[in-house]
Amino acid sequence: MTVEVERKFVCNAEIMGKLQDIEAECIGQRQFQDQYFDSPDFILTLKDFWLRCREGLWELKCPAVSGPTPDNETQTLCTRYREITNFPLIQSEVSRIISEHTAEGSESNSSQREQTDKVAENEDTEISSLDDTKWLTDLNLICFAEFKTERCSYMLEREGAVRVDLDQADFGYCVGEIEVLVPEGGDMNAALQRITSTAAELGLSCEKRVEGKMHVYLQKYRPDHYAKLLNAHIL
Ligand code: V4E
């Protein structure tokens, strides 16, 4: 399993020139569609879990809490998420999160108790089923965000790989990301340092965390969900 460490930045007109100046290699341009899923009462995202299907490939981003605490500035600007890409593992992890949540509230809410039973029943079924929609229906997961992104990717060698993505989402938002992948248990401080120095090379000086595509999408299209996440300090 890997931990994705990243810092987002405002994508301005000069960034392409700066990437050339620091000899970043353009590794390609692609378009993809993302669909994100959660329960109607936002069980996953309120715990900072992000379940996504991108062009048929599933991924679950989970909050990465272990490891060293970065300094204040790095902590503010960078995010760290564990990435699960193994489909059966994603299914069992999502099922666990939902059943734990449902069990916590089951004594005070009978409709939630029904859901617990439903999840418990599903634990007896074959979870590695290739039928995507059945497991989503069984866990009462629905798509809450769907958008396309046009992405230009660059690689830099800085005592290890550093990736820079320039994203343009189809709902009118552009954002850049500097990203390092760290194998679990790998050197997190070194990764954060590589991101900070790449940001400096690119002349990025923002002190505030830059909003990701999801932030802007929810604000625009799902204001209730957005408000709940803001209130829970997830976004
Ligand atoms: C982790 C997360 C979300 C899932 C999407 O993550 P992100 O890396 O922003 O998207 P993308 O398209 O670049 O994915 P990649 O191609 O790198 O796999 S949506 C919201 N979050 C949490 C989050 C947060 N709280 N703050 C910031 C700045 N980013 C993400």
TrEMBL record:
Subunit and partners: Monomer.
Catalytic activity, as annotated: thiamine triphosphate + H2O = thiamine diphosphate + phosphate + H(+)
Annotated segments matching region Disordered: 100-125
UniProt-recorded name of the protein: Thiamine-triphosphatase
Keywords associated with the record: Acetylation, Cytoplasm, Hydrolase, Magnesium, Metal-binding
Major localisation: cytoplasm
Pfam families per record: CYTH (PF01928)
SMART domains: CYTH (SM01118)
TM segment ranges: none
Stored Gene3D superfamilies: Hypothetical Protein Pfu-838710-001
Cofactors (names): Mg(2+)
GO molecular function terms listed in the Swiss-Prot or TrEMBL record: magnesium ion binding; thiamine triphosphate phosphatase activity
